[in-house]
Amino acid sequence: MKKQNTPKKTFGQRLNQEGVAGYILVLPFIFGFLAFTAIPMAMSLGFSFTEYNILETPEFIGFENYIDMFQDPKFVNTFLVTIRYVIFSVPLRLLMALMIAMLLVKSTKLSGFYRAVFYLPSIIGSSVAVAVLWKKMFESNGVINGLLGLVGLPDDTAWLGGEKTAMFTLIVLAVWQFGSSMLIFLAGLKQIPVSLYEAATVDGANGVKKFFKITLPLLTPTIFFNLINQLISGFMAFTQSYVITQGKPRESTLFYSVYLYQNSFTYGKLGYGCAMAWFMTIFVGLLTLLIFKTQNKWVYYES
Amino acid sequence: MKRKWTAIAMSLVTVASLSLTACGGGGGNAASGSSASSEADGKTTLKLCWWGNQVRNDATQEAVNLYMEQNPDINIEVEFMDWTGYWDKLSTVAAGGNLPDIIQMDYAYLKRYQESNQLANLDEFIENGTIDTSKFQEGVVESGSVDGSCYAISLGIQPPCMVYDKAIVEEAGVEIPEYPTWEELYDIGQTIYEKTGVSTCLDPSMNTMLLLARSYGGYIYDDLAEGDSKAVQKHMEYVEKFSQAEFCISPELWAEKDAANVDTKPIVDQTTWNDFPFACQMPTIATAAGREMGMCMHPKPADATAEQNYLKPSMFFSIAETSEHKEEAAKFIDWFSNDVECNKILKGERGVPVNTDVAEAISADLDDNTKRVFEYTEEAGQMTSPIDPPEPTSASEISQLLETITEGIMYGEITAEEATDQFMSGTAEILQEAAE
User: Fold this and answer.
1) Which of B22, B44, B235, B330 is an S-S bond match for B125, by CB 3.0 to 4.6 Å?
2) How many whole angstroms separate alpha carbon B58 and alpha carbon A145?
């Protein structure tokens, strides 16, 4: 189909070249990436070396923000809070996603419907509306306590106000939003050749054995991918803490990103906020690198 | 042929996605681009923003509509949000040089915005009569002034107070004194809990501590800067005493209900019978709760040596320094403060109007709750001491620190004494950093 190169082409001909189509198609992305990601990131790197209260001109102070960070007990605290959140929510969410994916991998009449339904929470996942809904549900006179009361369990727990339970509600919310990992697991499960299972059945392997000897090893690339994705989004979690608990009680649910936001926009220390953002970026980058390095120890690639 | 259509479709998609991306980026920042308003239709467009609740939003919108009707050459675009989001948003917009022409300003932020040259000096408009202040109460222009120049026009004044649920208090058979002490409140809370099971609250926030400092004749931020811990100590002791009592709201519930927003205040769903707002919030609380509310003076310590009460400008209107329509904006502010019809719509929701004629003219039409607010403001106005200077820039960080530390007391993890030490050293650090 490709036309011969002629010395002079009309505008229409130029437009019809395959390469051009590609560039036009990626143009919106490139524009969006530059305007809303790359340039702001570069600016924030610049600001991180300044003292900047948003309203006045930034003043260069070198690495002071980065040094101050490690003398700020609240910085350390929010960092640990976020790590705790990630450590619990990410594995639990992956486990949940895998379990549901295993249930849905069998094709039945309703499996399409179920897949859509289980995916729903992830679509509306990080929105403020869900956070508000969650807050209402876990209020002391909310639905959760109502249900607990119906089955005769104690129904006066102040979930959001308790130092132990507040973080728990946020983790439950995270686990509930397992949809996108579930879809990826589903795709991964479908790629495992049926012949392997058949052979195992012939050899007399039971379900548990099949899961650990066939499903799990062949799924490790998918697990790896999901793990990285979820780790990154876990460290970026913001809405839950900001909307549902506002970091209360006693800053036990004050996420790193919320403290970063408070510094930048409430306390008028945007420079410090930017430095915090870059610290987290570097930390997550290193963590991802570390997990990539361990890849050949546990991730199994066919061929 | 097919190819041609593909190319056209593709360009359309590109254009569409480009403009969508642009909307996505700009849409979140609806207040931007204020100064560069279009005047293609011969109209001047003013941007106006405020924080508030549903009642205020509806009333202000109605007043703005009336103004546009009376001034066909003015178009006013409004934006409103709740208190918490408002300041974060405003600082971001200010950074971009896109502040709305007319900004609702609070006493706590006035200095910060004035110091960074974001606000227009209003002296000129007051002198040439664009903003007519001749009927204003005494001290109103001064309350919006920094270093002798006026940067903000107060929209109403209001004293602090305690609001209580009338039905619950009556059921318990107690009498709320006109000006209770904290010690009396402790006993009242006990009785009410025994008779009705409803809890008492003590607002552990900066507002309470500020009033305590005033009770001893001090100004809390001066006290903190000088290392004087008397008011802080007293505050922590009250927090400890109340939170250890059975009749006081549990820290879990206090954390869950958000007393900073009217709709979630614990008094609204009868978790507590009392609350500590500023006076003009009372009708809104009564509406949110659907119950009758009483008002009395904000409690003071029994050993108070000075009068804690003061009349706080509830909020201001300021004009952005970047505004291209300062004159028109000033005219609107003049109308908003001095027009009777406008204030009949607003119904004193922003506090008692500063124009005494207007306040009198609208008082006949007010509902019972607002009437009570006006009366109370008058009563409290009889015994006040001068208002504190505007808060320092680091005030928001200090009040966050106080919240965390008082939570420590309420959850029983630290004592009042430890809390005092932590707070004094914490604020010293914050203040020192701010001074650098």
Assistant:
1) B330
2) 35
